[in-house]
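For the sake of clarity, the format in which proteins appear in this thesis is described at this point. Each number in the token line that follows is a code from a learned vocabulary of backbone shapes. One such record is shown here in full, so that the layout can be seen directly:
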Amino acid sequence: MRDKEKTIGRIIDSMEKVDITFRLLSDERQIDELNKGIYLLMDKLGSEDINVLFDRYPRLIQKYSIKEMFSGNVEIPNIDPHSLKIAGLLTCLQFLVSSFTDFIDEFGNSLPLKETKNSNSYQAENYIISSIPLDDYLKELFLGILSVTGEEYYQKFLKKIGDPDFTIDDILKIEKDKELQEYIDLMVWFSLIRVFLEAIYFYFNVENHNSKI
């Protein structure tokens, strides 16, 4: 059993918020936007290695564990460990986004774990979540975005938004700001992905909803 995820600085700190998030993001259009953001980030990163490894990752995962590849300690010939880490994060993210609707009912509420534990989706998502700590996931995604936007843009963004723990609502208030247009779509995507990851990690922590087990 995993330790409870930290709630300090978290947006998602209850199953009620998980249900709200699942309900909002389970719309087909929203899922499509989350997936598009993955390719947008890869495009902005401009790394051919990451693009190639993104396509190869499903095969690599049959030989190496996600934890090994994320740690950077595994040596794979002709593969840059950092590119492998980013490609892995984005590949896993694509799977998490594409299959999380298997854990909600027709009304958008999360299903009790006892109803999902034997499903292939549960086994796969649980494997990913057990392999990559949430804080590390968010940190690496953020650093990837920062490498695209640059420190100057990000500081300008923070100054205008006024809060380093920004939410999608904060961003929407400044989405038409001319100085921030270049990367605003990427920042919107990151804010949604952050909430999504917090929700899915919270859901998979058994201790967070014992009443539903």
About this structure: Residues 1-8 have pLDDT under 50 and may be disordered. DSSP finds nine helices and no strands in the chain. The chain has one domain: 15-212. The radius of gyration is 17 Å.
